[in-house]
Hints:
- Belongs to the YajC family.
- This is Sec translocon accessory complex subunit YajC.
- The chain has helices at about 1-20, 25-60; strands spanning about 70, 75-85, 85-90, 95-100, 105-110.
- By secondary structure, the chain is an alpha+beta fold.
- The protein has a domain at about 60-110: SH3 type barrels.
- Strands 4-3-2-1-5 form a five-stranded antiparallel β-sheet.
- The longest helix is centred in the middle third of the chain and has 39 residues, at about 25-60.
- The protein is elongated.
- It starts with a helix and ends in a 9-residue tail after the last strand.
- About 10% of the residues are buried.
Amino acid sequence: MTLMFASPAYAQSTGAASAQGGGIAALFVQALPLILIFGIFYILMIRPQQKRMKEQKLAIEATKKGDEVITGGGHIGKVISVNGDEVEVEFAPGHRHRVVKSMLAEVRPKGAKPAND
Length: 117
């Protein structure tokens, strides 16, 4: 019976010794799925969002007279004048407001028409 108890203990110590020998490789194998998930997440989510934000920022900076804009509050109007960081927007005939460019959510260039018209 003593032989029976000795063999499992010997097998456990041999397995532990081999696991310590490949510590860096084992760590890399465990970290690889996390690295792959982050890489896929970056390619599918983060990069396209950064590209869209860059395009939106350039469009807002290039706002000119006659463009149709949508403010952060959802108001749609036509740009009457541009003065540095501010634009004057006409929301209705005779109803004008000065709006800071950073509060514009979208810029529609002149001549852009809705798809349903």
